[in-house]
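Input.
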Amino acid sequence: MTDKELLELAAKAAGVRHIEYTNDYDGRLGLQCCDEIGRHTLTWSPLTDDGDALRLAVKLGIQLMFNKPTVYANGLWENMDDDTCAATRRAIVRSAAEIGKTVAT
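Output.
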């Protein structure tokens, strides 16, 4: 699954309203999100932003467990390699994407 697909499914699971996939001005890949009346407000990027990933995990009740060299998130394992934070963010987004697959459109 591509990063774009992961983000779109994770957004669906979390109820994040988005406009399009983007490569933001600072190089962050994410989704352009809007507020309740449809204005662009920010780039949501839980694959690259620790805060977005943590808020996503909390909102969806994703359980994390660390057993180096892997991180576990709701039944999915992700190898940590050199960047433990990136692996944790990816595990959260992958778990959220699985939840998003079950959400009705």
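The radius of gyration is 13 Å.
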